Every structure is written in C-alpha cells, then in structure tokens.
Amino acid sequence: MKKSTLIVLFSYSEEDPVKAYKKAQAALGAYTLDSAHNPTKLDEAKALIDIASADSTMAGLFKTHKLKGDIYLEISDRYFTACLLEPNTEITNPQASLTAVKSYKKALDLAKKKYERKDAVPGLSASCKHAQAMSHIFYEKKEYALAYEAIILPLEMHNPILENGGEIVFSSFEEFSSSKYQAVLLAIEIGKIAEAKVLINELFDSEYRSPDLYITHFKLLNTENKAEEALKVLEEAKAKYPDSFKLFSVEMKYYFQKRGYDVMQTKIQDKINKDPDNYLVYSFAGTFYSDLYEEELKTKGMTDAANKYFSEAEKGLEKATELNPSAIDALYTFATLYHTKALKLIEVQGAINPEVESILRDTLTYLKKVEKINPNDLGTLIMLADIFTKLQDTEKAAEFNKRVALVQSGGTCDGSYFE
User: Fold this and answer.
1) What domains can you pick out in the chain, each with its CATH number?
2) Per-residue model confidence as pLDDT tens digits over 192-240
3) 28, 31, 263, 408 — which has fewest CB within 10 A?
C-alpha cells in the first residue's frame, strides 16, 4: 500500500459515516472533473466510501453501494487507462473491478425505484467488462481463486444486466458459454467441485457442446469413481465428435490406467482404419507400444512379448514420421525406443558391441532431428550427452554436457548444434 494511501486512511479513520459518504461523493466529483490536477481525490473517495459502507445503517442504502461502485469502477478504469500508455503499469488495487461489481449488484438489490436500477446498470456492465479483463491477469499470475471470482461475477450478472436494459457483457451465446466453461476449469483448480458440477450441468442444459466440455465432465466423474457414468459421457462425446483425436487420447489414457491393453489395441486399430492418413494416430500407437515395451523390459526382460511391442512401436512411429517428418513427439519417442533397447542390451551383455553401437547411431538419427526443432529440450540434451559418451565421442559429449548444465541452470542454448 502506498504511503499516501495510508495517510488518507489515517486521516479519515474517525469520520462520521454520513459525512464520509458526502465527502466521498465530493472527492469523486473533484477527481472526475479534473483527474490530472486532483489525482489523490480518488484515493480519498475510496477511503471515505469504505468508512461509509462499513456502517450498518449506510450499508442498507442504495446510494451507498452505487457510489462505492462508481468509485471502485473509476479506480479500475484508472488502471486500464494507464495500461494504454504503459503496458507494465503496476496494479495498485487489483480487486477494484470485483468490488465495483459487488457494489453495483448490492445497489441493484436495494433499488426501489426504476430510475435507481437504471442508474446502477451502466456501471455494473462496465465493471463486469473490467472484471473479465482482470480474470486473465489473475490467471497469468496463478491467482486462480481471484481469476474464478473475476469470471463468475460477470456470468452471474449477465441476466440482471439484460433484464434492466443494460449493455451486454457477452456478445454471443458462444462467448458466454466459453466463459462459463473457463469458470468450470478454474472452479476445479481451486477445489470448488460442487460449483463446477453446477456450471457443467448449466452448460449441458443450455445445449452448449464441445469436446473439451465432455472431457472435463468425464474426468470429473472419474475422480468421483463414477466409471459407468463417465464412460456414458465419453460415448456420447464420441458419437457427437467421431473425428476428435483429443477424445480418442482421453479414452486411451483411461484404458491404459485401467491396464485394459487388449481394449486399447482394438480401438487403436479401429482408429487407424477410420483415419489412415492421420499421423497422430500412428504416433499414439507407437507411444503406446513403446510404453508396453519399456514395462515388459523392466518386469520380465527381453521376452518375445517385448520384441513384439518393440516391432509394433517401430511400425507406428515409422508411419507417423513418414506422414509428418517434423512430428517432434514421434521423433522423440522413436529415439527413446532405440535408446531404451540399447541400454537394456548393455545391461545384459555388459559391453557396447557393434549391435549396440548401431542402435545408438539409429537413436542419434532421430535425436538430431528433435534437437534441430527444439535445441533446449533437456531430455534430448541428456540423451545426446549419454550417447556420445557411450560412443566415445568426447568432444560432442563435452559439448552436450555443457548444454545440459546451461539449460538446467535456467539458460538457453544459442541455436541447434546440428543446424
């Protein structure tokens, strides 16, 4: 809190609530008349209206909350206006727009005359728009509880604003519904599960649909151990969005966690048959079999099953990189597949023989492509350092160990080594 603000608070701490209201009104008037020459008047108005609104009698009056809304809206507006001139302007009162919305809402609740409602609605609409903007700022700062409040308040005020002839906050059904879905995600993030479920039901009742909404509902039901309901939601989503790869991925992750590998293999093959030119499907298949291969190696060693999984992973990843040579996930998985095999052979044989060396060089083929796309990926750099060490290429091993240390310390590599 700034020193000037502390002085203002101290100066008016003993103020009579009724007089505080009148002085707050006068201070706001002076500020709006000439803000350039009266910048401190807004802080005075805030300190005074806070005193007035804390009084039980004054808190029961429409005019108190209307004025409080006006003052806090002006504080919020001052920040956004300053941002137009200097984007990095410090937020001195980040919750001003939220306080403004709540104050106008209270004023609307207390309004007895039609003109009072008419007077409160423009400020309510404007402060809701400010709150929407602040929700993004709060989210970027990871202040998720405030981000949730900043998005839920405009949603709750949408109908009251429309009913009283105010300017709409959301320009379309799609924008309104999308904001409500963001509120769902934020509610889940801060543990407001009951609120999230209410919002999800409202979205479904309003006929809003999207793969993401279905996925969020599915995951929420899963966390509550409602597997039957969750799968029903997923089936409905797949019927509505049969081409959604995101839905396919979520379903596969579900079965992988349940170790339903046979089901997964069938569904993966069905997806390939339906979408044979989608590299993502093949990349997913390659990753799935690569995971099975690694698990088999850890638990049972180099069995026939492990060899089969390796072959299936290789086949899927080859097709993925054929369809999209820049598919970085598939390229990286290809590299880890070969690297894993090489490490297992070294463990079993106790040496780096020509077979292992050949596999390590195959690994390099894919890792070099990944490094060109993303020269700062730590996993790639660590693997490259390890492989060059094993191949006794001391110069490259030293270079990549240096790059590993750089990235681990928060730095970035100056371009790709292999470019």
Assistant:
1) 290-419 (1.25.40.10)
2) 999 999 999 999 999 999 999 999 999 999 999 999 999 999 999 999 9
3) 408
